[in-house]
Design brief:
This protein is α+β, with helices and mostly antiparallel strands. It folds into three domains: 2-78, Alpha-Beta Plaits (2-Layer Sandwich); 87-169, Alpha-Beta Plaits; 181-238 and 248-301, bipa protein (OB fold (Dihydrolipoamide Acetyltransferase, E2P)), CATH 2.40.50.250. It is 24% helix and 31% strand. It has seven helices and 17 strands. Strands 1, 2, 3, 4, 10, 12, 14, 15, 16 and 17 form a ten-stranded mixed β-sheet that branches. Strands 5, 6, 7, 8 and 9 form a five-stranded antiparallel β-sheet that branches. A hairpin with a 2-residue loop joins strand 5 (85-87) and strand 6.
């Protein structure tokens, strides 16, 4: 698995006192990690302020980012990708052998979850004790973010283990997330008034008073496409007395994402901004009109 780690390029960079934000500091820290961590490989990219870090799995890379965050580094981390190889002129990707032990009532949910991730069932054994054991061959990129969904679907009772099996030809596009993102269309503090109107559109990740900027992802849309929203909208106040008293609006508590969950949530056009005090998800291209142009160009090419 590989991910791109670079300096923080968001508008909120450098807000934390004593944070390490320069490319030289990040590069020195990655070089220092290479000395003690033999499972990592750091490669240059086409940008001078970002590097491709290859490791054994997403957890190992997430631990490195979390360590750097606690050491006051500010980073932009790309979505985890698989490391491909060219075999006999074909692009091949790693396939993992996945072993699952779970109660048999969750069989349908697990099968559906792995079918969308292009998994192939190799073997299934029913022990007659109410538990089943399954063996699957799944592309490694299909397993990025799988553990969280698996534990949710099996209510924490399922056990899974996966190990590298072989390289197989590229499986094509995988849709691991069906929902789009709610993207802030301007910068400013989040207001409770705007959140009240937006909470029926999806799940929010921010709370009132949080500073946001254009292109930052503030929630998960209930539909499949992305939606630009104004989450900084304030209530218009007048000097007229209201005939009815202000009704109390109930705000649903926001969903707090950990670093691993944020990396799992990311799509190809999104990245994670990591600072000592916050983990934010944002679009790679922050400008709204620029993003719309890129989407139109992609649709035209397809």
């Amino acid at each position: 698995i590989s991910m791109t780690i670079g300096t923080n390029t968001s508008p909120l960079v450098g807000r934390v006192k004593g944070a390490k934000v320069t490319a030289r500091m990040v590069k020195d820290r990655l070089d220092k990690e290479l000395v003690g961590n033999v499972s990592l490989r750091v490669l240059p990219t086409d940008r001078p302020d970002a590097w491709e870090v290859q490791g054994r799995g997403e957890l190992a890379l997430a631990i490195l980012v979390e360590q750097m965050r606690r050491e006051s580094y500010e980073l932009t981390v790309g979505k985890p990708q698989v490391v491909t190889r060219e075999i006999d002129g074909k692009v091949c990707e790693p396939v993992e052998r996945l072993t699952i032990d779970a109660p048999e009532e969750h069989l349908g949910a697990i099968t559906q979850l792995l079918a969308t991730r292009k998994g192939r069932m190799e073997q299934m054994v029913n022990h007659g004790t109410g538990w089943i054991r399954m063996e699957w061959l799944v592309p490694a990129r299909g397993l990025i973010g799988f553990r969280t969904e698996f534990l949710t679907d099996t209510r924490g009772t399922g056990i899974l283990h996966h190990v590298f099996e072989k390289y197989e030809p590229w499986f094509g596009e995988l849709r691991t997330r069906n929902n789009g993102s709610l993207v802030a269309d301007r910068s400013g503090p989040v207001t409770a008034f705007a959140m009240t109107n937006l909470q029926e559109r999806g799940t929010l990740f921010v709370e009132p008073g949080t500073e946001v900027y254009e292109g930052m992802i503030v929630g998960e849309n209930s539909r499949s496409d992305d939606m630009d929203v104004n989450i900084t909208k304030e209530k218009k106040l007048t000097n007229m007395r209201s005939s009815t008293a202000d009704e109390t609006e109930k705000l649903i508590p926001p969903r707090k994402l950990s670093l691993e969950q944020a990396l799992e949530f990311c799509r190809e056009d999104e990245c994670v901004e990591v600072t000592p005090v916050a983990v934010r998800i944002r679009k790679v291209t922050l400008d709204q009109t620029q993003r719309a142009r890129e989407t139109a160009r992609r649709k035209h090419q397809n």
